[in-house]
Amino acid sequence: MLDALFKPKAVALVGASTKELSIGNVIIRNLQKYGYKGEIYPVNAKAAEVCGLKAYPTLADIPGEVDLAHIIIPSQFVPDAIEECGKKGIKAVIINSAGFSEMGEEGARLQEEFLANARKYGIRLFGPNCQGIINSDPELNAYCNFTFTFPKPGSISVVALSGGVGALIMQVLDDLDIGQRLYASNGNACDVSIPEIIEYYGEDEGTKAIILYTEGFDKPREFLEVARKVTAKKPVLAMKAGRTEEGAKAASSHTGSLAGVDIATELIFEKIGVLPFHDEGEIVRAAMAFSSQPIPKGNRAGIITNTGGPAVIATDVLVGFGIEVPKLCEASIARLQETQFPQAALENPIDVVATAGGPQFRAALDVLIDDEQIDCIYINFVTAPFTDTDAVAREIVAVSQQRRKPLVCNFMTNLKLERYQKTTAILKAGEVPCYANPGDAARALGALVQYGRIQQRDIGAPQIFSNTDPAAAKAIIEQAGQAGREVLSAFEVYRIFEAYGIPVAPWQVVETAKAAVAAAEQIGYPVVVKVDCAEIDHKSDMGGVAINLKDAAAVRATVEEMQNRLGNYGKLGYLLQKFLPGGRELIIGASAERELGHLVMFGLGGIYVEVLKDVVFKVAPVTRVEAEEMLAGIKTAALLDGVRGEAGIDKQAVIELIQRVSQLLGDLPMIEEMDLNPIMAFADKAFAVDGRIRIQLEN
Amino acid sequence: MLDALFKPKAVALVGASTKELSIGNVIIRNLQKYGYKGEIYPVNAKAAEVCGLKAYPTLADIPGEVDLAHIIIPSQFVPDAIEECGKKGIKAVIINSAGFSEMGEEGARLQEEFLANARKYGIRLFGPNCQGIINSDPELNAYCNFTFTFPKPGSISVVALSGGVGALIMQVLDDLDIGQRLYASNGNACDVSIPEIIEYYGEDEGTKAIILYTEGFDKPREFLEVARKVTAKKPVLAMKAGRTEEGAKAASSHTGSLAGVDIATELIFEKIGVLPFHDEGEIVRAAMAFSSQPIPKGNRAGIITNTGGPAVIATDVLVGFGIEVPKLCEASIARLQETQFPQAALENPIDVVATAGGPQFRAALDVLIDDEQIDCIYINFVTAPFTDTDAVAREIVAVSQQRRKPLVCNFMTNLKLERYQKTTAILKAGEVPCYANPGDAARALGALVQYGRIQQRDIGAPQIFSNTDPAAAKAIIEQAGQAGREVLSAFEVYRIFEAYGIPVAPWQVVETAKAAVAAAEQIGYPVVVKVDCAEIDHKSDMGGVAINLKDAAAVRATVEEMQNRLGNYGKLGYLLQKFLPGGRELIIGASAERELGHLVMFGLGGIYVEVLKDVVFKVAPVTRVEAEEMLAGIKTAALLDGVRGEAGIDKQAVIELIQRVSQLLGDLPMIEEMDLNPIMAFADKAFAVDGRIRIQLEN
Q: Most buried of A141, A396, B229, B450 (most Cβ within 10 A)?
């Protein structure tokens, strides 16, 4: 599908320029410098030659077939240029020019116009307002971009919303001497989207791992569905910027497309097994490890060091990733005793001491490779002046190339010294992931372990509960919608909950004091009375809730008093409910996210949600495994098991409740916001005792 | 004092070696290569010449005066060598040799022996088992070390417990092209200590900032007192490794001196204004900013960028440091409008766009320099191929050199291209702190802002409350100590609290049911009864606490029942206390830390301390400002102000309580552990309602 874009046999440049340092000149020079194997056709009405190549007045004048064109001309001429591309039979176009949807109405109109032209001819558009693509395949060497980094061939492919960050990632990879495969930064992304590019990378055999930089997605559900398939095949390492209010504002200012902090993107990453990063340096250094090392089967690291302090730093960082640094078994220690210097520390970290040479390093490596209690290896290697550092490097390479267990190396040296340049070259040629300090190396190993964990996690499919009545729930919502009511009444909310088997405290809605007493008798004392009135939103603050009413007199007095005090707000109903004290207050919430579906939230109620903000979100539909993760994921999870002699709560009931809420949301996409707050959870059951649903009214 | 060590006029090497790559050879070559201006005297019994220098059979044979000697011989010969140093009049000795306290008893004995010899002659010892020192002063060029990095002169001085980390820091500084002043890594540190070195750096005029790496201190109080004076004069940037249990174990394995996670070191940093780091890369990159930039007066950053995404990343990171990215004032925006390209975004971040040249960058920089709402400047500068990047660099340098506001630059370029090497050289020569990615640059600016905050913080002196009775408290403890009791009785604890004006709920200790009733009548109902018996440690778990007793009958019955049930444990007393329900449970704790004094802990009681571990520690003595910080520092601080309609607590009372506890601890160093748990805090008062004191018995 995107082959014309990523594997062009001939590239035309509409707006090719003889002016040095102009984009229409830089791209041609880049193609030439990178050794592009296809034809390059500059299009320029005035010049006969551009960058030493014959130039053509128009696309139509080009003799051969062209599959990809760059367009580098003022925005108002782009629609016509696309028309000409169509006539020439061009299949893909990179529009480098800016001045479209990012620049207001007139630009947006132009964008619509050229899009229509493209559709007419079946042209795929990349951009506008973008860099372009790179394909490092030595058979092709396509550098259709105006950036200044020339990646060597490799297996890491990069896609970035921001050209600046894309170029940065490419540069840092290159600085680290890591090969790259495909690169794409598609600016306004009016047609070819990031999900499509991810899908293409997923199918590209040369791509072993993918780096994604984004500030959010226009169509998050599309990304979720596409990337889910890709993550099943290869690692996707991703960074989402704009995590803070201010960052999101900065993002919105340069892309014009998003506003507000978007937590959904990171939740999608989690759901589908994308490895998340918060630091652009870290993602690239992790990619180095992914490009040559296997994925660890577990989280137990063995450390080999020839200097003390860096092992301490590495241990701190590894532990922060949930990595264990276990004791070595006796057999391993015995083997070390035979091979290491007397001053060596035969523990984990293994301190082979600064005088250790190739044999000592190799023996220690072999021990860790063979030890079944160890899943991955971290090495500190300082080029001590009194040892054969080349020999050490050769042994590390040999063990790395066995690909039995992943290893990373914190390689501490002075590259200005010729002697160590050689050592460095040995490690690089052997594709050992080397880092300049212990923290960086440990974080790269941490990423490998984290990904191993992601690979092993199976969230399963969402459970479908059959004893539900979606039609009844839908009818209630439609009725409210037709009446123009955004916020549903308590009666409607509880009926919907019941339609999905969500346990609620026994309840009735009545309109008079007399009926209230009758209802209370039926429910059984003690009861709660809550006023139910469309005009009263915060009934608690308005004195519209009375708890623990123990007899008929109390119920009657309460209802009459509320009627007197609140009757002027509108027609009052009264919700009577069984009063259920002594449980643990929980909260489940849901909100619709633009173009994605619902997010589901779980937490402890009261101060835990209000003061501690101790809640966990998931993207619906929520599977059983995810619901379990939600309960385990709050900081105060221990409270669910009971502390200080209190009984724990019925977690299975809550897990089922979350799943039923999720199913309800899937069936009822018109729900904008919903909460079950509080849920009262006991040792053997859990009930929603209050709920709220707000729906999206159709315009 | 340490001038002989750091400014040696002549260096002798006992153990100078003709064998290449041996330490006794490498150090001489390093001195030569670095251009040492003093005399170098190899001492070697067999060789006439070492590294082209005349060698002497013994120290006594050296004709000239020597102030510093390296000792690089097997450990058993070191004591005699020190004796000879003494006779020669040598003032400081670096013992590179290993095999002492880190290697068990025999080594420790040798260490004692040579230390005695050193004391006899007033020699200061550096090491053993260490690297040495470097002084980059071009008048001296002393490289008394076997490492392989040759720092250029500068103003950053480094001291590291671990030679490996010290060398790493030196290397990374050098890779970043940052000049260095003094370097020291003193291994076993049997004499010259890290605090002494810090003090020396503090007095060294050429040192503008200090980097410290440690895994803890043998004498933390000495460090605290010394470094406190230094931080008043210049920034101390410090990293403490061994933060995790496993990391501490690794540290203990290579230094042999520490065990267990030590939180005290970071608390000392906080107390005296050392800037703390958790990443060795970050500390060095921060040092680059400190070496050339002023300290910001506030936390408001202006961002200039010529590419979108990196500004988003930077904003996220800056916000994480508590830095604001405020809107620009209208005057600033108007000035930008006059000077920037039409496509530029005139907000904060200011996107000058990729085509911006020197004039656009300079104009934007001038606006931020002049804007009083901005305290510091962050720049993203990607070397766009279509602009004069040298001109941009020159403008950044010019503004940086005004030293009006600190700036950092994320400089994104390809150093392989000659064109950009020139741009890079301009920035480096101008001492602009440049980083390879936005996160790194933003964190460096974050460190500057954080330090500005530290500089402005004044914790004041500890308040001394005069209405206290230390003699009475001391007498109680001495009596318990003489009786061999580690854990004080309730009676003793409350008496000590009272001696320090710590409010306790009204109480009496009695021995019979009859006396209990009389006491309860005096205290006023309701009361609590707690059994008081040296043999019963966890009285709650044993059923030794009864709350909310409302009349004489209840008190009598309770005491009689406890006597029957628990009487066989030993002689029982009964503590009667006013029952004070409905307050907020707090906890204040204290523990003695080896060689430091006490740590004081504050938190909310119950699940907040047990499940959430939401507590704050400070090193005693705790000042009023620190006590206020403790209350504000817990995650659940909002609960102290009252939530959900509850009243807040009397914070002033709790702040005073903490200070009184601190004064008590200062007077009574023999207290090992103490807690006031719970304290019941109300809107207008706070009482300790239970307390526990454990003392250190003299052996």
A: A396
